[in-house]
Amino acid sequence: MPGETGAAGRVPGAQAPDGAGRERRPGNGFATAALALGVTGVTLVTVVPGLVFGILGLRRAASCGAGRMRSWLGIGLCLFWAAAASYLLPHLVRAADPGCAAYKGSALTAYNRVISDFSGSHVAPHLSGDVSRAIGELEAAADRSRDPATARALSVLARDLRTVRGELRSGAVVPGTAMQALNRDAARTDAACGTLHV
């Protein structure tokens, strides 16, 4: 009979509204939290909580089937930020040394001017003065350093420049070995001061 309803109270042949009668899949808030914490892991404060929520998210995904990808992404991002921090933090600590701050400022500018002079001509009229200025800046940076290894690296570089200045004053051509020593010891000073080369 038209208008009759079935046992469930529905008109026979009528369609159920979209989504009705279907069970909702349980969500995975742990996975969402892990991903959000992983994205903000650059602050480093959220790395450990992000890993914890990522593991909880994986456990939840095993039972409910949702959130596995978000959990792995959150864990991966947290591990990436942790690895980046473990690489960068020692460099930043070394760079904070007062001697390194002085080296990366006026001392390095004076040293680079000397290297620029040498790449142009050994007989540049201002070369000896530039070398003396760089020696003074490097020695001042070494005096300001609180780290013995950094102070030693700065002093060795200043000593190399004193050798070069002696050669210049005597009128001799600066030997290639002196330039190699400068390059080697400048690289050691950069390493002591946490200079990153990318």
Notes on the structure:
This protein has 198 residues and is mostly helical. The chain folds into 2 domains: 29-91, no CATH class; 96-192. Helix content is 69%, strand content 0%. The chain contains 7 helices and no strands. Helix 1 (29-39) runs antiparallel to helix 2 (47-64), helix 1 runs parallel beside helix 3 and helix 4 packs antiparallel against helix 5 (127-144). It is rod-shaped and about 90 Å long. The model has no long low-confidence stretch (mean pLDDT 80).
Provide a compact summary of the structure:
The protein is an all-alpha fold and 198 residues long.
Task: List the defining traits of the structure above.
198 residues; mainly alpha; rod-shaped
* Secondary structural class: mainly alpha
Mean pLDDT: 80
Overall radius of gyration: 33 Å
Q: Count of helical segments?
A: 7
Stretches with pLDDT under 50, minimum 5 residues: none
Distance between the termini: 82 Å
Q: Assign an overall shape.
A: rod-shaped
User: Largest beta sheet, briefly?
Assistant: none
